[in-house]
Structure prediction request, 277 residues.
Amino acid sequence: MPRRFHQLDVFTAVPLEGNPLAVVHDAQGLDDERMAAFARWTNLSETTFLLPPTDPAADYRVRIFTPGGELPFAGHPTLGSCHAWLAAGGVPRAAGMVVQECGVGLVRIRRSGSRLAFAAPPLRRSGPLDEALVQRIAAGLGVARADVLQHQWVDNGPGWCAVMLRSAAQVLALRPDFAQLAELNLGVLGAQPPGHEARWEVRAFVPGLGVPEDPVTGSLNAGLAQWLIAAGLAPRSYVAAQGAALGRDGRVFVAQDGDAVWIGGDVARCIEGTVEL
Prediction:
């Protein structure tokens, strides 16, 4: 049967400058194999499928697929799926707050004007990386071990680990050896120079998921924000830039409010129609 379909650009207000997402509405009746096959076919970082919630506290349920398999949580699919659900007439139970059900449980999403922001889920793993892994990452990135200023597990579902390099310029110059990074989901960040609109430049390398580099990554930025703010390495509110190395211009808006860290971004609608699966 025909199902409503959106293709969106997330973490940008300008189409074609963020991270694209495909969203299939009313996905009841599609089995795992069909969802996975469609995600491989779109060949985007993620494709999501909207379903009725199983938790009475949720407004909708989402399943998130990369070309390489299913994820329990991801950031740009969370914001994009929420945008698509609202655009299709979804009405949240609580005014101003949408509750998404996904593999990590319930995720809150709030609206501020046209911008959406999700509450970063708790980290499943934190703490510094072991030295052997840091050296492997440095070799895979083609930098000296001394260029890795900080490192940390920032895993909120996809398995993220992260390293901080000396500068945004060094981050943008990276040409990784993906064979050495293999199964890692790796985030790399470096500070922008004073006066830049963004505090950090971020890149995300996920070769094991069939996407060597993700253009703009909400889940990684969520984990990074929890680490950086808690460690005193970043203020409670900042902007991260991501995607320049891929010809994009994404912006991630981070703000800590009480105990919650909110990860925000704009969403641009690019394609709307129906898909037959």
Summary: The chain is about 20% helix and 40% strand. The mean pLDDT is 96.
